[in-house]
Input
Amino acid sequence: MIELDWKPTKNSPEPLYRQIVVYIRDKVAAGDWVIGSRLPSQRDMAEAFGVNRSTVVAAMEELISYGILESGYGGGTRVKSNTWSLLMSRPPDWSEYIKSGPFRANLPTIQAINRLEFEPGYIRIGTGELSPDLYPEKLLTKIFRRMPEVVPNLGYLGALGLPELGRAISERLREKQGIKVGPSNILITSGSLQALQLISVCMLKRGSAVYTEAPTYLKSLQVFQSAGMNMIGVPMDGEGIKYWHIKDDCKDSLLYTIPTFQNPTGTVMSEARRKELLNFAAGHRLPLLEDNAYGELWFDARPPKALKAYDTTGSVIYLGTVSKTMAPGLRIGWVAGPEAVVQRLGDVKMQTDYGASSVSQWVMTELLTSGGYDEYLEKLRVELKERRDYALAILKEEFSGMATWNVPEGGFYIWLRFDRKLPMDKIFSDALKSGVLINPGNIYDYGENNAIRISYAYAKPEELKKALKILSGIGEKYYKR
Ligand code: PMP
Output
């Protein structure tokens, strides 16, 4: 994917088209733009460079005449050759190298979302992050100011992370969730994503089955697939995963679940289902990986206890994070599990990054031990609930008769399902053209679906309204066809 993050200098003696020629030539020569890569359209380039289209045309003509670019099949311009750079020195064939590692690239739609989220001008109605408006500036400023006295040094930490934080987390898990673990059962990770990554490379054989809810957040990543796992989607109902669809012979496999305010469907696994699932897991010696990223974000009533709280057989590895409740930028997550498991993961973590940021770990310790985190969470729940109600009211106005959706009791997400099969890729690109960035449901699923993940946590309420109106207009257009 070629990105244009440069502009020619307007008042330079060098003509604009020449500057563009040199820029593109150097990108190709440096191996940044590999042979065969497709350049953006002339119109997009003109816009990105801030020049007239005729200037781009002149630059393209010159680059084509040098044999660096070719205009090709089906319109479009591609990088043809970097052979003139042979005269200088021959770069390694990066296009081959970058295809060679075992870690898979993101899905193209996710790459696009990851890029567009950082471009101004889009209303983001699928983003799984709290709005910058909800950033607890006062609280965090107070905590940051204390850091000079609190942080004793910034040396490396032990394999399980900052002991003070491990203690604070284990106390919190006991107190709030009834999860009976001690500090020796806790590994601090750099976000819960790192825990997933560590588990994928430390604990499973290639070819092992990883069962998940269908749809699931995990399917939008390539972590387990890159480690050679076989991902298997298990259907859900209103009470959670229908675990009885799992094969009886599930040796060497693992079940990943988000039982509370599931991403992307918002579903909460019922207490009865939790107990049945644990029985099933214990009976089959099937490890459960419980991802509780959203569990503390309940609105009216606490959800059932975490699976880990009912776990008497040591079948559950529990993942927590502050990314959804407060600040993904802290990159603080944790694993709570059997000692042998956290030690194994901690050993590999030491080999990969030698610990999560100790500044972040001290900040998190202060947040938890000062009581500031809990006070903040209480307010956040109220705010999120208001946003949910607002989003539901708009959905009712805009999507009734065309789609159905859940009423989430916590977390961030509404799973909006059109009643008919619609061309979701076209809806994605039409929405983009109107300045709305959506997370289409198929990125979380094992096949096509007619769903869109709506998050009421990120966009400003009035922007969410505007964007949902636009989206319903687009939906209607295809719905009627
Ligand atoms: N688990 C779930 C269910 C999530 O939704 C996310 C973020 N979208 C993560 C894990 C990753 O969060 P982090 O690495 O920031 O803790």
